Amino acid sequence: MSVIVAASELIRRASTDSLAQQRLDVAADDPDTRESLVFAPVRSEDLRWLSTSEWLWFATWRQHRGGRLDPLILERLRAINMTGSRFARFEFRGLIFRDPETQQLAREAMSRRDVFDQTGLDWILDHCREFTNPREIARDALQYGTEASWFALRVINDMPDRSADPVRRTLATLSSRQVDDRMVQRWTFQG
Questions:
Q1: Maximum Cα–Cα distance across the chain
Q2: pLDDT digits (tens, 9 = 90+) for 138-147
């Protein structure tokens, strides 16, 4: 049995109760438990033990302790895009926009259209192309203001279809209001 399965009841409670979260934090002080909860890849068998909202909370908890984005968790959280509340979608995007590794690679992708094989950037590319409301993604990206969210704006700005036109117009309006050129460069691909 995985540590995530063994700790699933505590994780479930910790997602809504600060006292339970403190107990989970204490449990993660043990190096072996920390390795299993924070750094080890999630197994597909683990996914059924937590709800979508509990996985979002747990992924954020892992991230705050140095854990990486897990592709299986992100796949499980895709349901938020279809059935989740506006707030849940905002939080889900924030998980990726705040991810340190995604931030670093987004910074490096500032002048390239090619993207690295990396969980966070791949998710942003897919999400910007698949989600039917680019304005919502752009609003969230502007609120987070991270390197990864600037990358999302570049992807939307570079989309050939008309669904991104309102975002392009908004960005053009912001550009014309004497926004610093360095800021404008953050939401446009170079070369």
A1: 58
A2: 999 999 999 9
Q: Where are the domains of the chain?
A: 1-77, 86-191
pLDDT for the residue numbered 53: 94
| Whether the Cβ atoms of residue 14 and residue 24 lie closer than 8 Å to each other | yes
Report residue 34 as tokens: 């920390």
The encoded tokens of residue 23 equal 């107990």
Per-residue pLDDT tens over the stretch 70-89: 999 999 998 888 788 999 99
CA angle 121, 65, 48 (to 5 degrees): 75
Residue whose tokens read 């995007």 = 93
- Cβ partners under 8 Å of residue 95, min gap 6: 56, 59, 60, 63, 69, 77
Amino acid at 84: G
> How far is it, in rounded angstroms, from Cα 24 to Cα 19?
9
